[in-house]
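Entry 12.
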Amino acid sequence: MTTTEPITVEPKADNGEFWLIVAECFGTEVPTFQGEGPSCGDPALFIRLSRCNLTCAKCDTKYTWDWSQFDPRKESTKRSVADLVAWAASSPVELVVITGGEPLIQQARLVPLMQRLIAAGKRVEFETNGTIAPAPELVADGVRFNVSPKLASFGVKETKSIVPAALEAFVSSGRAAFKFVASTVADLDRITELADAHRLAPVWVMPEGTTPEVITATTRVLADAVAARHWHFTTRLHVLAFADARGR
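Predicted 3D structure (tokens):
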């Protein structure tokens, strides 16, 4: 079974604390950077949540949802909001990236997490596939959304991965950037269609690849066409710097 299982974790612990299903947290003991998008190169902490509502063939974090390859009992754990905030507050790094999987599956529990992180002086970026509209409470000062709609070339049906109402909500938030993974100029043509149809801006393009060699080659395939469209271009810094090591 490769589809994500329902979220069954209880919403609150006995002490009233909210829980989240977490795949991993990193960036405190071994520092790292945001590797993609508008904040590429910024020092960052990462809270990677488990579970996803898509099953993309080219996903590079299948350990958050593909239970045909991974054991969810080994790949995820329940952590309280208080625990996650204390973990983030232990570091002077300002940026906390909440990613997945698809983090907005658990967004009711993300509201108190975001609010406490902001109160602790952090700023928050959510990395989302753009299929679930953000709760109004998440659209707050100190919050940004890196929305990454998945193209059919990424190994998913666009009838599932492109949700116009959700994209409209992100556009209306005024707090979103739209980051597309691409490997060919044909992908850029499809991005143009989606950006025009749904008024997506700003558009960021990221070359597909999990090795420096592939990223470099794909960057060269795409660079002129991205520049001609006056879009932003981002690399995958964590792959170039850390060879796509997990937890970096």
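Annotation: The chain is about 30% helix and 20% strand. Residues 19-183 form a domain with the TIM Barrel fold (CATH 3.20.20.70).
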